[in-house]
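A quick aside before the break. I want you to see a complete sequence-to-structure record at least once, exactly as it would be stored in a machine-readable document. Don't worry about memorizing anything.
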Amino acid sequence: MLSIFWWVRQAVLIFVGCLFLMFGILMLLSAYKLKDPYSFIMVFFASNLMILISATLVLGFVLRMVKVYKLFKNNEC
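That is the input. The structure line, written in tokens, reads:
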């Protein structure tokens, strides 16, 4: 059985990943307000990279929690 600390840690990691995801979306929206084309390109690609990495991490943490929950549920029955 996994300790409660593991579940709390996974929830915190998901929360932090969602914060970075929201920050990346805000950066993407603010990139469209820039007037300089060079700055737009830099902020646009940086925000897309941040969104991609954050979304991948959040998805990975959620899938890991679902997998462990299913294994734990099958072992109890």
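Two observations worth writing down. DSSP finds two helices and no strands in the chain. The helical segments are 4-31, 37-76. We'll return to this after the break.
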